[in-house]
Write a structure and sequence with these properties.
Number of strands: 10
CATH class of the largest domain: Mainly Alpha
Strand content: 15-25%
Oligomer: single chain
Number of helices: 11
Number of domains: 3
Helix content: 40-55%
CATH architecture of the largest domain: Up-down Bundle
């Protein structure tokens, strides 16, 4: 399946990216994890090397590349072990920036996209609230028009890149009384430093510590009406459409995380001995490794199949929802068995498998929980 997706240009990009990650990222992963942040310098270096926003038109700083370059980016970031950086860059590059590109006016695009492309700006998407996660129609953050400004009040939480973002595409209700409720949803860009835009704290998480996740407040936050993306009340449909790519990014990240954990564990099992022979030579353990390898290979092929459909602009809502929940749960199963095969060392934070097991737990929650994915599929099946 891979040979149907990647061409020589993609592999040139891969080699360049892999070299960059070996030099600029992998040596610093432990430091970033302890400091709970990715330095801004790495964003700018990635921008300088063309690893951000490559899919944009040249006038905004890109080269018009296809989504397969994002697949390469996701793969190499996960293979390098930089999962926190992968989460942050994925939200910035493949989730938030497309909203500006698709819905923005020419003035808006020229104002924000070039700086996002160079890494000068870090972007976030503000959807989740304390009382509204996957049910985005239930959000309570409101934006009331007052002349040439919107006055925004509300709260967002679990926002990736939220603490260090320079701009956030904020999901708001411009008409809280709209029926059905989704017709009152709009998207507004809020820039860092805007009075009333308050970043209270970085949240302490189970894993992905180098990726900042924030709680945000908006208290009489005034932004120009010109910061509205698209038309007022038309924000919900683009979100539902763009969630296909967000969930595709998520399912790719999950299966690649599983693949890396298995590789680490196989290497460990070949060298660690118990009862006089390598752990991998015990039949039960060998079978367990084979089972995981088989499931990963099947999940990866299915994910690549979805990439091809996405490139052809097909509606992949049902299948990507399947892949999203399955791959995330697979990664968590693989994490469990790989920790177990490491024995006591698997429980030690100094071992990569221990940290990985914590990192992958988010996969079955973010971008729509496993239960929400199954609900979507059930509805599409007429159940």
């Amino acid at each position: 399946m891979a040979d149907q997706i990647f061409c020589e240009e993609h592999e040139i990009f891969r080699r360049s990216l892999r070299s960059f990650l070996e030099k600029e990222v992998k040596p610093h992963l432990d430091e970033w994890r302890k400091n709970r942040e990715v330095p801004r310098e790495i964003w700018k270096k990635m921008g300088e090397q063309g690893f951000i926003g490559y899919w944009l038109d040249e006038k905004y700083g890109g080269v018009g590349a296809d989504f397969v370059y994002s697949v390469v980016l996701i793969e190499e970031l996960h293979r390098s072990g930089a999962w926190g950086l992968a989460a942050a860059v994925g939200v910035h590059n493949d989730i938030t920036m497309p909203y500006i590109d698709i819905l923005g006016t020419e003035e808006q695009k020229m104002r924000w996209l070039p700086k996002c492309c160079t890494g000068e700006f870090i972007a976030a998407i503000g959807m989740t609230e304390p009382g509204a996660g996957s049910d985005l129609q239930a959000i309570r953050t409101v934006a009331v028009r007052d002349g040439d400004e919107y006055v925004i009040n509300g709260q967002k939480t679990f926002i990736t890149n939220g603490y260090y973002c320079d701009l956030i595409v904020l999901v708001v209700k411009t008409d809280p009384r709209a029926q059905p409720p989704y017709k009152g949803v709009s998207l507004i860009v809020v820039e860092n430093g805007t009075p009333g835009f308050i970043k209270t704290r970085k949240l302490e998480k189970m894993g992905l510590h180098s990726s900042d996740t924030a709680e945000l407040f908006f208290e009489d936050c005034r932004v120009p009406v010109t910061n509205l993306l698209g038309r007022e009340g038309d924000g919900f449909v683009p979100m539902m459409r763009n969630l296909q790519q967000e969930r595709l990014v998520s399912c790719l990240g999950a299966v690649l995380s599983a693949e890396r954990m298995l590789e680490i564990t196989i290497e460990y099992c070949k060298t660690r001995t118990v009862f006089g022979k390598p752990v991998s030579r015990h039949q039960h353990n060998a079978f367990k490794l084979v089972e995981m390898a088989t499931e990963i290979e099947m999940a990866k092929d299915f994910s690549y199949h979805l990439v091809l459909d996405h490139l052809e602009k097909k509606d992949i809502t049902k299948k990507v929802s399947m892949a999203k929940w399955y791959n995330a749960e697979l990664a968590n199963r693989v994490a469990y068995h790989c920790v177990q095969l490491h024995g006591g060392y698997g429980y030690m934070d100094e071992y990569e498998i221990c940290r990985d097991a914590l990192d992958v737990r988010m996969g079955s929650i973010a971008a729509g929980t496993t239960e929400v994915m199954k609900t979507i599929i059930a509805r599409m099946m007429g159940l």
